[in-house]
Automatic annotation (TrEMBL):
Record domain HTH tetR-type: where: 17-77
GO molecular function: DNA binding
InterPro entries tied to this protein: Homeodomain-like_sf (IPR009057), HTH_TetR (IPR001647)
DNA-binding region(s), residue ranges: 40-59
Organism: Amycolatopsis camponoti
Name of the protein: Regulatory protein
SUPFAM superfamilies xref list: Homeodomain-like (SSF46689)
Annotated keywords: DNA-binding
Length: 201
């Protein structure tokens, strides 16, 4: 099988999949440490100790590799949030509070890279739109799972969407403000809105 560049592609053998995962993990660690600026197949290959041709054997393109790297980093973020939520009470309000603390206090390198990914999606949507669309698709199921199980699915989706959009705005505020006071104040208002949702019939 060949990709768009004409290089032979891995056909999905168990051995090939194991190697693909190893490469992805190594490159993801590099991006987490060094960011997305100047990301390229050659830089990724260097960090993984291989060649760009080998990467094109396992990934469709530089964009495909970047998409999978960002997906992996978001999985780390979600895993951190779920760990924090597991230690909280069963209420949606407490789960949102625990998830926000995890997001607010996460390592700056992880936040920086995921912010850069959203920046790329906005700067060049023709090439990187998938980085932006993938975020909501990845985060929403987790937030839906925080909602009371007896809620109708549409209500879960609506409330989870509100929480996601608001928390993303707070992350931008943390990135662009010196003290984070407005994000903290806004978050308290969000918690009150979530409490009202929980109290509603």
């Amino acid at each position: 099988m060949e990709n768009a560049t004409g290089y032979r592609r891995s056909a999905g053998s168990a051995r090939g999949e194991t190697r693909r995962r190893e490469l992805l993990a190594t490159i993801t660690d590099d991006v987490a440490e060094n960011g997305l600026v100047d990301f390229s197949l050659r830089r990724a290959a260097k960090s993984a100790g291989t060649t760009h041709k080998v990467l094109l054997y396992h990934f469709e393109s530089a964009e495909d590799l970047l998409r999978q790297v960002v997906f992996s980093l978001r999985e780390r973020r979600i895993g951190n949030a779920l760990t924090a939520v597991a230690a909280s009470s069963a209420s949606l309000t407490d789960r949102v509070r625990a998830a926000w603390v995890s997001l607010r206090d996460e390592e700056s390198a992880l936040r920086r890279v995921l912010d850069q990914a959203m920046g790329l999606a906005m700067y060049d949507p023709g090439r990187y739109a998938a980085l932006g669309r993938g975020a909501s698709q990845q985060y929403l199921p987790t937030l839906v799972s925080f909602c009371p199980p007896d809620w109708p699915e549409q209500r879960k989706f609506e409330v989870a969407s509100m929480i996601l959009a608001t928390l993303r705005g707070f992350l931008v505020d943390l990135l662009t403000s010196a003290d984070g006071d407005s994000a903290a104040a806004g978050f308290e208002a969000l918690l009150r809105a979530v409490e009202r949702e929980e109290a509603a019939p």
